[in-house]
C-alpha cells in the first residue's frame, strides 16, 4: 500500500491516454488500484469524458495531500496552466506546452515526495519536436530533469517489463544507422550497472541474471558478421563478471527470446530499441510496462503509444495503463522486495 498518490501526466490529449485513465479509475475498486491523480486541463477532461459517454466523477485539488480523501469518490485533477482542445485523433502543436507542463509538474511531485511515483500517459514525439522539444522521448527528458533538479548526473535506462520478459535497449531513440557509433563500452557498462542495481533495489531480485544480446546477426558469428561482439561487448561482460555479476552473452538476438531461453535470465539487455521492444511487445502488448531505471524517482508508462487511429472511439484497452499504475505502486511500496 502506498502512502501518497501516483502522479499521472496527461500525455497527448488527442491520443488514447485520457480515456484509458478514465476507464482505470472506473474499475479502481475491482482492480484494487492504488490512488492516483492526473495533471491536466479539467475542462478538456470533462469534454472528453462526455464526448465518450463516460460518467467519470472528477474533482480539482491544489495540494497533493487532498487526494487521499478525493480519490474514493472522484478522480483528482490538478489543473494545468495550459488549456487543451478536445480533438481526438488530431494532434496539435499548440498542445505541446501543456503536455510538457504536465510532465514537469509530475516530476516535481515525484521528486519532492508528494507523489509516490510518476506514471506518464503516452506522448507523440513528432508534434513535440515540431514545437521545439529537444528530447527524443520521456526517458531522455526525465533524465535531464532529474539531473537539473538534483544536481547529480542521471543516466536514464529504458526497461520494458512484462509478465514473461524484462528487456532493456542500450541505445534508445536513435536512427539504426547511428547505433554502432553510439554503442560504446562506457554506455554498455553503465546500462548494465544501472539495470543490475535497479533490479535489486526496485524489483527485489537479489542476484539478477542478465542476458546480453549481440549487435550483429548470430552475435557476429566469431567475427565474420561483425566485430562489435569481440571488440566491445565481450570485454565489458568479462569485467563485470569478475565483479560477480551473473551475465550471459553476447547472445544471438534471434534465439534469446523463446520460452526456454527466457527461463534462464531475469532481464535481457539488447543493443538497440527494436531488439528489445519487438520482443517485449510481441510477447505481451497489453500487459507490458515501460519503466525508467536510473532515476531518483519511480516512473512507469504503458508500453503503447498515443494510438491516434482509435482515440475517442472507446475501443482502446486500458490493460497496460493499469499494469503501469500497479507496477509504480509495487515499486514505491517495496512489494517486489519480499
Ligand atoms: N510511452 C510513450 O509515450 C510512447 C509513445 N509512443 C508514440 O506514440 C505515437 C504512435 O506510435 P505507434 O507506433 O503508432 O504506436 P501505438 O502504440 O500508438 O499504436 C500501434 C497500434 O497499436 C494499437 N494500440 C495501441 N495501444 C492500444 C490500446 N491500448 N488498445 C488497443 N489498441 C492499441 C493502435 O491502434 C495502433 O494500431 C508515436 O508518436 C510514438 O512516438 C509510442 C510508444 C510509447
Ligand atoms: N518506444 C518506446 C517509446 O517511444 C516510449 O518512450 P518514452 O517516451 O517513454 O521515452
Automatic annotation (TrEMBL):
Keywords, comma-separated and alphabetical: Cobalt, Cytoplasm, Magnesium, Metal-binding, NAD, NADP, Oxidoreductase, Pyridoxine biosynthesis, Zinc
Subcellular location: Cytoplasm
Protein residues bound to substrate: 138-139, 281, 290, 299
EC number from the UniProt entry: 1.1.1.262
Binding site for a divalent metal cation: 173, 218, 273
Record text on subunit structure and interactions: Homodimer.
Function: Catalyzes the NAD(P)-dependent oxidation of 4-(phosphooxy)-L-threonine (HTP) into 2-amino-3-oxo-4-(phosphooxy)butyric acid which spontaneously decarboxylates to form 3-amino-2-oxopropyl phosphate (AHAP).
Protein name: 4-hydroxythreonine-4-phosphate dehydrogenase
Species for this entry: Notoacmeibacter ruber
Amino acid at each position: 500500500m502506498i502512502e501518497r498518490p501516483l502522479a499521472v501526466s496527461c500525455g497527448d490529449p488527442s491520443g488514447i491516454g485520457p480515456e484509458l485513465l478514465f476507464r482505470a479509475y472506473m474499475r479502481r475498486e475491482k482492480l484494487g488500484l492504488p490512488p492516483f491523480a492526473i495533471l491536466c486541463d479539467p475542462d478538456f477532461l470533462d469534454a472528453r469524458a462526455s464526448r465518450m459517454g463516460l460518467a467519470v466523477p472528477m474533482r480539482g485539488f491544489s495540494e497533493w495531500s487532498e487526494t487521499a480523501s478525493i480519490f474514493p469518490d472522484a478522480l483528482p485533477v490538478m489543473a494545468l496552466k495550459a488549456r487543451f482542445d478536445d480533438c481526438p485523433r488530431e494532434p496539435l502543436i499548440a498542445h505541446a506546452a501543456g503536455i510538457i507542463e504536465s510532465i514537469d509538474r509530475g516530476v516535481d511531485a515525484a521528486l519532492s515526495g508528494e507523489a509516490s511515483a510518476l506514471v506518464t500517459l503516452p506522448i507523440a514525439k513528432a508534434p513535440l519536436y515540431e514545437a521545439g522539444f529537444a528530447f527524443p522521448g520521456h526517458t531522455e527528458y526525465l533524465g535531464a530533469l532529474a539531473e537539473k533538479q538534483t544536481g547529480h548526473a542521471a543516466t536514464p535506462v529504458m526497461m520494458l517489463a512484462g509478465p514473461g520478459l524484462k528487456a532493456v535497449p542500450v541505445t534508445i531513440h536513435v536512427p539504426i544507422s547511428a547505433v554502432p557509433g553510439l554503442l560504446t563500452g562506457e554506455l554498455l557498462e553503465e546500462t548494465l550497472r544501472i539495470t543490475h542495481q535497479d533490479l535489486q533495489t526496485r524489483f527485489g531480485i537479489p542476484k539478477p541474471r542478465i542476458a546480453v544480446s549481440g549487435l550483429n546477426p548470430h552475435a557476429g558469428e566469431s567475427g565474420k558478421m561483425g566485430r562489435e561482439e569481440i571488440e566491445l561487448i565481450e570485454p565489458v561482460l568479462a569485467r563485470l563478471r569478475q565483479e560477480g555479476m551473473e551475465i550471459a552473452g553476447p547472445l544471438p538476438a534471434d534465439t534469446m527470446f523463446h520460452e526456454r531461453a527466457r527461463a534462464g535470465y531475469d532481464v535481457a539487455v539488447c543493443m538497440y530499441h527494436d531488439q528489445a521492444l519487438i520482443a517485449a511487445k510481441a510477447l505481451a502488448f497489453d500487459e507490458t510496462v515501460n519503466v525508467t531505471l536510473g532515476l531518483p524517482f519511480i516512473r512507469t508508462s504503458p508500453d503503447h503509444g498515443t494510438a491516434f487511429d482509435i482515440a475517442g472511439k472507446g475501443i482502446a484497452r486500458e490493460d497496460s495503463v493499469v499494469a503501469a499504475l500497479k507496477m509504480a505502486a509495487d515499486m514505491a511500496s517495496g512489494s517486489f522486495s519480499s
